Amino acid sequence: MKGSLISKTKTVLLALAFGQIVLSPFAQSCPCAFDPAGPYTNAANAAMQSGNFAGALSYLQQALKFDKENPNIIYNIALMYLATGNYREAEANMIKSIDVLSSNYGVAHRQVAQGYMDLGDLYENESTDSRNPELKKKTEECYMKSIGLCEEIYSDVSGAKVPIHSGKANSSKHKSKKICEIDVRQAQIDLSNVLRHAAEFYSTDDNFSKAEPLFSRSLELEQRASGADDKDVCKHKAALAEFYCEASKPQLAEPLFKEVLASLEKNDQVNSRAGAQVLYNFGNLYRDQDKFADAEILLKRSVSILGNLTPDEMDLAEKSVALADVLDKQGKGAEAGNVCENALMKLENTDSKQALMVVLKQYHKHFLGLHNKVEADKIAIRIKDLAAKPGAQ
């Protein structure tokens, strides 16, 4: 579920995507003076916009001389070290930022909770690169610490403790409500976010038993905060449905897919790229259960939507191949052949050799299933010719 070093660290992704130095995500809730260091942070922003992360780091270090205990400058220095691949300095500065925040506001504070989540991200990124099991243990510890703090903050503003993890209860004497005013909705979002991080961490190791309750609780909190039909809630609900598919629990995935489609229909968003993907994933769920008639309905709609959206070539190829497959398995050979032909016509003049290869292989399988050796051999020649060209697989 997670990608590269930068994309997996959410705060770094934001900084890189928007080309600017970021405050700690919860910095807006608590005053942190940047004025004395303003010229240097401005210069750091300019350096980042040009992709000069080393330069941005240098300017931030200059800014820190004017405001040595500013947790947000320290936090951004950690991000720049991470962006340049220096895990050790990134770790040291992130821990220092957490320590300063804890000293300023108390441990049970949402910026501190966010800091532990980001530190967990850092360890997870490094463990992915180095395959170090000790770093995975550190990742888990940071996520559980963040969850514990968020639970305490949530209980402060909601009046109801909601236990998630098996660790010891946080003993902080500080009450986040008194230090940094937030409402129940924001507390729910904060807790949901870190629960999702932890769930994704476990799911990458196929530890479904630990990931499932975290995913479920995260979605429950998000629905309370934003409503069942909210766009992000629908996205995460669809992700949970996919998780259940991977965990071989189709009976749990099916109702979630139905809920997502109902929300998309309600919000007039089903004919979007996201809608096409949900239909495709739901169709594949039925396809894997040999419910080909049900799969056909969903996959046909998915391919139809993509046909009106100028889709990504590989996206079109994969969805067309899935539809052709369920049609062939129902003995609808003529329809399956037409789906392959239509996809090939749309892909023929594109640069996506891989997408063409995907469709051609399905088309070859189609003719073999019909025992049509003549047409199968023609497709085999096309596959061979395409494979000889650069960029084909």
Account of the 3D structure:
This protein has helices spanning 5-8, 10-18, 38-49, 53-66, 71-83, 87-105, 110-130, 133-158, 176-179, 184-204, 208-226, 231-246, 250-266, 273-288, 292-307, 313-329, 333-347, 353-369, 373-387. The protein has a domain at 331-393. It has 19 helices and no strands. The longest helix has 26 residues, at 133-158. It has 393 residues and is mainly alpha-helical. Helix content is 74%, strand content 0%. It is globular, with a radius of gyration of 25 Å. The model is unreliable at 1-34 and 165-179 (pLDDT under 50).
Give the helix/strand layout.
Blueprint: H1 5-8, H2 10-18, H3 38-49, H4 53-66, H5 71-83, H6 87-105, H7 110-130, H8 133-158, H9 176-179, H10 184-204, H11 208-226, H12 231-246, H13 250-266, H14 273-288, H15 292-307, H16 313-329, H17 333-347, H18 353-369, H19 373-387
Notable features of this structure?
mainly alpha, 19 helices, globular, disordered N terminus
Q: How many E-type strands?
A: 0
Number of helices: 19
Q: Which sequence of SSEs, written as H and E, runs from N to C?
A: HHHHHHHHHHHHHHHHHHH
Low-confidence stretches: 1-34, 165-179
Overall radius of gyration: 25 Å
Shape: globular
Concise synopsis of the structure shown:
With 393 residues, the chain is an all-alpha fold. The chain has a domain of 63 residues. It has 19 helices and no strands.
